[in-house]
Amino acid sequence: MARNKEALVLLIDVGPTMHNIIPEAEKVCSLLIEKKLIYRKYDSVGVVLFGTADTKNELTKEVGGYEHVVVLQNIGVVDGDLVDALQHLPRGSFAGDFLDAIIVGMDMMIKKYGKTDKGKKRLCLITDALCPTKDPYEGTKEDQIITIAEQMTAYGMRMESIVIRGRFSVEANKRIVDENDRLLNIFSKKTRAKLVYVESPISLLGALRTRKITPVTIFRGDLELSSKMKIKVWVYKKTSEDKFPSLKKYSDKAPPTDRFATHEVKVDYEYKSVDDPCKVIPPEQRIKGYRYGPQVVPISSAEWDTVKFKPEKGVKLLGFTNADNILRHYYMRDVNIFVAEPGNSRAILAVSALARAMKEMNKVAILRCVWRQGQGSVVVGVLTPNIADKDNIPDSFYFNVLPFAEDVREFQFPSFSNFAVPSQQNELQQEAADNFVRMLDLAPSGQGEALLPDFTPNPVLERFYRHLELKSKHPDVAVPPLDETLKKITEPDQELLSKNKSVVDAFRSCFELKENKKLKKSSRQMLREIPSGSDEGENYGKGPKKSDTSATEHTSAATIEKIGDLTPIQDFEALISRRDSPIWVDKAIMEMKKKITDLLQQTYNEEEIFLKALEYLIALRKACILEQEPKQFNDFLRYLYKFSQERNQSSFCKFLASKEVTLISKTEAVDSEVTDDEARIFLIKSEPMLE
Amino acid sequence: MAMDLDPDDIFRDDEDDLDDDFHLEKESTKEFVVYLVDASPKMFSTTSPAGDRKDETHFHIAVSCISQSLKTQILNRSYDEVAICFFNTREKKNLQDLNGVFVFNVAERDDLDRPTARLIKEFDRIEDSFMREIGSQYGIVSGSRENSLYNAVWVAQALLRKGSSKTADKRILLFTNEDDPFGNIKGAVKNDMMKTTSQRVKDAQGLGISIELLPLPSPDEEFNVAQFYAELIGLEAVDLAQFIHSAGQKVEDMKDQLRKRMFNKRIVKKIIFSIANGLSIELSSYALIRPAVPGAITWLDSVTNRPLKTERSFICLDTGALLPTSTKHFQPYKNENIKFFVEELSEIKRVSSGNLRLLGFKPLSCLKDYHNLKPSTFLFPSNEEVNGGKCIFIALHRSMLRLKRFALAFYGGSANPRLVALVAQDEIIRGGGQVEPPGMNMIYLPYCDDIRDTEEVLPDSEVAAPRATDEQIRKASALIKRIDLKDFSVCQFANPALQRHYAVLQALALEEDEMPDIKDETLPDEEGMSRPGIVSALEEFKRSVYGDHYDEDGDGKKTSEMSKKRKAIAEDAVKESANYDWGDLADTGKLKDLTVAELKYYLSAHNLPVAGKKEALISRILTHMVVGGRPRKLGKVIRLFMIVQLLTH
Hints:
CATH topology of the largest domain in chain B: Rossmann fold
Organism (chain A): Rhamnella rubrinervis
Structural class of chain A: alpha/beta
Family (chain A): Belongs to the ku80 family.
Number of helices of chain A: 21
Shape of chain A: globular
Distance between the termini of chain B: 21 Å
Pfam family, one (chain A): Ku_N
Low-confidence stretches of chain A: 514-558, 687-691
Function (chain A): Single-stranded DNA-dependent ATP-dependent helicase.
Strand content of chain A: 15-25%
Strand order of the largest sheet of chain B: 8-9-16-21-18-17-15
CATH architecture of the largest domain in chain B: 3-Layer(aba) Sandwich
Radius of gyration of chain B: 31 Å
Subcellular location (chain A): Nucleus
Low-confidence stretches of chain B: 1-28, 554-559, 629-649
CATH superfamily of one domain in chain A: von Willebrand factor, type A domain
Structural class of chain B: alpha+beta
Largest sheet of chain B: 7 strands, mixed, barrel
Number of domains of chain B: 4
Oligomer: heterodimer
Shape of chain B: globular
C-alpha cells in the first residue's frame, strides 16, 4: 500500500437491538465512503455485518463457528456500489457477537496484507454491545481478548469501537452490558484502540471520523525555557477548519460529443493602465504599492525582502502567569498541540512535569513562536496543559495564539448597573433566569454531554456530500430539506424544551417585552436610528426577508407605518385602512405575511405559536375580503402550505384545517378564481399526502 | 499569478486563512472628525502624575492622544477625514475669521481631509512651536463679548459641512479640562452666552453632527460634567455615569480612556437571538479582536508609478472561448462531473434561518482549550432594543456568571454556520477605566471534522507513556514560581512585523533616509532569565528530568541521522566556501561563471536556501552580501539593491 493509503474493515452490528439506529449508521458509513471517493480514492474498505440470520465468512468454512457473521464486502478499493450497499443495510434477526466479528475482520486483514502496512490497517466496530459474547473453548474471555489485542499489535492494526448507548438503546441486561464494557476496555488498554460511547444519533454521525488527515508537524525543534534548558517538541494542528470543498467552475462550451472535454474554466487576470485601458502591463513591469494615507508607496517584493522583519526560527518561553489572566475569548485562531518528541522519553518527562505542575498551580505559559525560518512574522500565545487521561498517551500542551496590541479594539460599553431602572432585575426575574439557565442543561451530570464539538458533524458538509451522492444518480434532483438528525444541531431540542416547559414559560412570563416608551434623543442615537443597509446583514434565500421581530417601533395611532410586536393585529388594521396613499394596503398585507412566516420560522409545532399565527391569518383573511384582494391571501395560503411541507411542519396545515381556515372563494370576493368546493377542500385534500 | 492578487500575502506565511468576509467590518460610511482642543492656559498649567516620568500637561495628553489616533487611522482607515482645531488661542486662523480659534493644517491638504504623512510628522512637533505661532489665551473673559467656545463649535460645524450625513459619520470631539467655561463671567451676559452656545450646539446636532466630550480631570479636582456640558450636549443619566472619574488619575489611565472614547464603536451586524418559543431579542455584534493586517496593496506600473486596473476574465479551457460569468460549478465524483448551480450551493449552505438560536447551557468546564477556530465576536444588547430585551440579556448574563455556565447556540450565517459558545463576561474596571466590557463573547466552536486526534495516532503509543514523578513536578513548580509574569496582560506586545512594515512605509512616504529601528518586544527577557534564582531553578529542573548526562541534540535517535547529515553538509560547505573570494567574484561579475554546486557552498555556509535556478542563487548571494545583516540606511539599501538587480539581469 502506498504511504497515504489505508485499509479499513467496518464491523457493523445489525442485530435486533440495533434496528432503530441503523439508519444513522447507514448515513455515517456511506458518508465515509463518499468522502473517500473524493479525497482518498485508492483506500480499500471491507464490510462485515454481524447479528444476521445468515452466515457467510471464510473462517466458518475453515474452522467452523462464527455464525451470524456475514462478509458483505471483501477488502477492495472503494467504489460507488459500496455506497449503495451501505445505504441499504439488511436488518438482522440474531444477537450478534462482536468478538466473532472482530476476529473475522482481523482474519480478512491478515489474509490480504499479512504483517505489511503496519499502522495503515484499521477496524471500526459499530455496536450497542448489548448481547453476550460466547465463552471461549479454553481460558477466560479476558485472556482471549488479551490474545486478540496482542495479535492486533503484532500485525499493526488499530481498532476504533463506537458503542451506542443512551436513550435509544433498548432495555438491556446490566450484567452483560458491564461485561462487554469491560472487555472492550481491555482493547483500548492493551493495543491501539479507541473506544467511544455515543448517546445520540448526532454523535454517531460525528463519532466516526469520515475524513482522515495525516498529521503534519508545523514545527520540530526546541521549546526553549532558556538558552540553557530546552525541550524537544513537535507541534501539530489540533484544530483546523474542514472547509466546504472549493468546486471548480464549469464551462459548457465544449460540444457534447467531446468525450475528453475537461469543462474547466481558467480565470485570467489582466492589469491595465488606468490612463490607457487598452494597454496591458506585463507582470514584470508591475510593482506593489502600499497605501499610506492618500499616498501610495511603491515597493518591489525584492526590496521588501531586504527590509522586512525576519525573525529567527524558534519557540521561546517568555514566562508563566495565572491561568485566569488569559480570558478565553482572546484565543485568536485554530489550536496547536505541542507533544514531546516521540520516543524521546526525557522530553516526554519534561513536558509531563511542566504540564502537571502548571495544572496543579493553575498556571499557563506565554510563548513567542516562529515556526519556520524565513517566516515574516511572530506569534505570541498561551500554552495550556493537557493531561492525558489514557496511560499510553503522553501529556502534552495546547497552544492558542493571543492578540497583539494592534489586533484589539478597545470600545467602551455602558455598565449594566447604569441601565435605567426597568432593566434592573427584580428577584423573581433573576430566579426565573437562574432556573432557565440551570434546567436547559445540555450536560446533565451522570449523562453524556449533548452536542459535544468532538462528536458533532458539520451539517453543511454532511448535507453537501449526501446531495452529491444523490445527484450522481439523479442529476436534476432538488436539494432536500435538512435531515431530521442534523436539525438537532441547528435547532433547540424540542424534547428538552417540553420537559422543562414550566421553567421556560415562567421565564417568558417574567420578561414580557415592553414597548420602549422613552426613546433616547441624544444626537448619537439619532444617527444610529437612521436605518442603513449596512446593519441588515445577509438575507437568506427566497424566504421572506426577516424583520426585526423583537424591536418594537414607536407607534402611535395617528401615524402607523409598520406592524409592531405588541399589538400587531391593531397595527395591521390601522395600516390597511389608511387612505392617504394606496400603498398602505399592499404594505400592510406584505408585512402581515412576513409576520406570519417569521413566527412559523421561529418554532416547530408549538401550539401557542400556531394560535398566534392563526389569529394573524384570520385577520389577514378578513382584510383581504374587505379590500377585495383575495388572490393575495389565496397565494399566501398556498405558499404557507408548501412552506410547512418543506419544513416537515405538516401539523400546521392540519391545525389550520381543523380551524376551518379556507381559501377565499368566489362567493366571498368576486375577484377570486376559487370555487366554494375548491376553497373548502384545499387543506383537507392535501392532508393524506402529508403522511 | 493569480496569487499576486492577495493583498495580505506578505503576512500569509503563517497559514492564516480566515474567511475574508469575517475580517471586514461593514464600513459603508466613512467618518469625518474634528478634534477640538482647548488651548487655554489652564490646559498648560494643569498636570497629571505620570508613572515613572515627570508629570504631563493636559495639553500634551490631548495632543499625544490625537497624534496616536492619526497614526492608527492613516494605516487602517485612511478614507476617514480629520481636522484639528484649537480654541482659546492668541492667534486665529479659520475661514470665518473668528477670534480665538486656530485650525491647524499642513501643505497640500484641505482643512478637513485625509491625514497625510506630513500632517502626522508636523503635528508630532506642534508643541515645540505652539506658544510661538499659535499661543494660548483665555477667550471668555468678563467685559468682552467674545465667546471662543461658541466660535469653536461654529468653525467645526462649518468644517463638517462637506458631504452628506447619510454617507458620513460626523463627529466633533471636544478635549477640555474646564468644566465651567463661563465661570468667570456673571449675570445676563453669562446667561446670554450660555444660551447662544447651547443653540449653536443644537444646530450642529440637528445637522447630524454628534458632539462628544473628552474631559481631562485634574488630579485634585473632579471634572463636573453636570456643571455645564451635560446639558449642552444632551447627556442623560446613563451617559453621565461614564464620565465619573476618580480624581488623581494617572496619565496612562487617562490616555487609555481618552483613546477608547475617540473610537467610534462600529457594529458589525445586528443579530436576532432567539431564546425559546418565539422569545427573541436583538443584539449588536462587535469585532473587538481581529488580526490587524497591513493595508491593501495597489498594483502600480513601475515605469509611471500610476495605479493599475485589474480585469478578470473567465476562459473555457476546452474551446478558449471567453465566458461572460460563471454560474455553474462542478465536483468530480465517481468518474463524473457533478454540476451545481450557485443557487443550489447556497441552498445547501442554508441550514438555518440566520438567527442566533439558543440550544441550551453547559458548565464552563465543557469549553475546552482546543475548542477554538477563529477570533471571538462580542455581543451587546442593541441600542434600539426594547427595555425588556436588555432586561432578558442582563438576567441571562448574570445567571450564567453565577452558575458558571455558557450558552450553546447555533449561529446560522449564510457563509459558515457554526455552533457557538456564548460566554458571559463581567465588566472589569482597573485604574478607573473599563478593561473588559460587560456582555457575551461568542466563541466559534469546531465540528468533529475540524478536530484532529493527533496525540492518539502518533507512533509509539502502544506502551505506557512515561509520567513525571512528584519530585520532578515539584521542581517544575519551583521553576514556574520563579518565572512568573505577574502583571502580564494579553495584547501588551506590539506586533513587530507590523510595526516594521509601518515604519518602512512611513520612512518611504516621508522620503527619509534613516531606517527607524523597531524594537521587538516579543523577545524573552534575557537579563531577567539570567538572574541566579532563575538559573538555579532551571538547572534543578533540568537535572531532575534529564538526569546528569543528557545531550539535548543527540538524544533523538532517529532524527539525529538527518540533522547530522545536514550538519556535515554545512560544515563541508563552510570549508569549501572559504576557498573562494566571493566579494571579488561579485564585484567582477564572475559569479555566473561558477557552477551551481559551487554557488551552493556559499548559500549552505550562510544558512540560506539552496533551491532555485542559477540566476536565483546568484541574486540571493548578492542580496546577502549587500545587506549583510540588518539594514540601517534604507535609502542606501534600496539603491544598492537596484545595482544588484542590474547585475543579475
